[in-house]
Amino acid sequence: MRAAVDEDRCRGHGVCLTICPEVFDLTDDGYAEAIVPQVPPELEDAVLKAVRSCPERAISAD
Ligand code: SF4
To answer: How far is the CA of 34 from the centre of ligand 1 (A)?
Structure first.
């Protein structure tokens, strides 16, 4: 699985970081980014939860 954050939609709420800090981090500009190119299998459930929980629907994972 790969995860990505649409920087045009992200508003920097940080919900994704709270759910899965191993995959998401905030940039210096205050927006989220996926910091691993490939999501490890054991973190896929957390990433999918972040996708569902993002208030801006800014995260994609496939
Ligand atoms: S939860 Fe969504 S809007 Fe908030 S920081 Fe993460 S990607 Fe951005």
So the answer is: 11
Q: How much of the chain exceeds pLDDT 70, in percent?
A: 100
Class of domain 3-61: alpha beta
pTM: 0.94
Residue 38 buriedness (CB in 10 A; 0-12 / 13-18 / 19+): exposed
Burial 45-56 (b: 16+ CB within 10 A, else e): ebbbebbeebee
Q: How far is the CA of 56 from the centre of ligand 1 (A)?
A: 7
Domain boundaries, the chain: 3-61
At 3-23, the pLDDT tens digits run: 999 999 999 999 999 999 999
